[in-house]
Amino acid sequence: MNFEHLQQQIAFIHEIDKVKYIQRKTRLFNSDRNENDAEHSWHLAVMAIVLAQHANQPVNTLKVLKMLLIHDVVEIDAGDVFLYDTTVSHTNTEAERKAAERIFGLLPPEQAQELIAIWEEFEAGETPEAQFARAMDRLEPLLQNVSNNGGTWREYQISYDRVVQKKGIISEGSQTLWDFAKTLIDDSVEKGILKKEG
Amino acid sequence: MNFEHLQQQIAFIHEIDKVKYIQRKTRLFNSDRNENDAEHSWHLAVMAIVLAQHANQPVNTLKVLKMLLIHDVVEIDAGDVFLYDTTVSHTNTEAERKAAERIFGLLPPEQAQELIAIWEEFEAGETPEAQFARAMDRLEPLLQNVSNNGGTWREYQISYDRVVQKKGIISEGSQTLWDFAKTLIDDSVEKGILKKEG
Q1: Which pTM value belongs to this model?
Q2: Is the residue at A66 inside a domain?
Q3: Is residue B80 a part of any domain in this protein?
Q4: Predicted complex ipTM
Q5: In this structure, what CATH number is given to the domain that contains residue B169?
Q6: CB atoms closer than 10 angstroms to residue A2
Q7: Would an 8 Å CB–CB cutoff place A22 in contact with chain B?
Q8: For residue range B47-76, what is the model confidence (pLDDT) as tens digits?
Q9: Which of the residues A91, A141, A179, B24 has the least number of beta carbons within 10 Å of its own beta carbon?
Q10: How near does any CA of chain A get to the CA of B87, in Å?
């Protein structure tokens, strides 16, 4: 039997193990340990399954899951960028595009093209699936910070206004989730774990 | 706005963070660090996306992904059981059923029932989706052990016969993947990282 096709797929599966080493700034819900990109991607995917009913428009859940499961693979080469970092561009940088070509390029060509297209759709954030997937990506660290006594908001002195500005994108995927997120953000100010002034 | 439904979903999302603390026996592909259940579940889900074309029968990939993403949630209460452990039952124990009821039971009732049913379908291993999902669950640690100079096979002195016996279930989900897995197992014997006698 000719396993050439399969060998390419296994090479990809092997390579993406490195996603487990990429540390995020955000910490786990009840821990001082930083979350890694594999754990993060898993959590977003389960969130999407559970919360899909709140999307503004009906979404193809399979496509949302594919987006969330692979969205951080490019960070193997390009690294993680903190949401509140003001010195680095956040969207679809040249480094990320090159990473996508190299890493998804390990797969058979047709499959590589499919996953690059899904990653680009996620990055562009224009379809209902991409908007809902991006809402998950913004909601999870917000839940973690709320659970973690302020988490990265306190650690990096992020102000209420910047949180609202960065998290407002949740409304593009789900107005319901954004309405809920705002109550959490407002509660956080009351509790003193998020400051009105940075 | 009434967020009661959503509050239940958030409680579930919060609870399953604990999956990130559950250590497996198996180590990462290129590391001495043990893999945790969240990383494992993420990797299986991406594998399913990439390898679904090799399933014996066409599978509903969305259902396969749901199975893989939630299959280890019960281990929050019931703990991880090593595949080659001979002292503990592996399938659908009473502890696991109780865990499923408690943890999925945090969700709104209809969603809880759906996810418990999906978990039970995975455990029963009788549908094409469950068989393919279970093939992923057996294939990943095999790939890790091959990549890791024998990994848990060497560490726990697992013999060739037991590996073939335990991994043969891959063929129920995908004969192609089992044919491939056998070549890896045979190569491992030749390389001396898996022993014919335990």
Answers
A1: 0.95
A2: yes
A3: yes
A4: 0.94
A5: 1.10.3210.10
A6: 6
A7: no
A8: 999 999 999 999 999 999 999 999 999 999
A9: A91
A10: 30
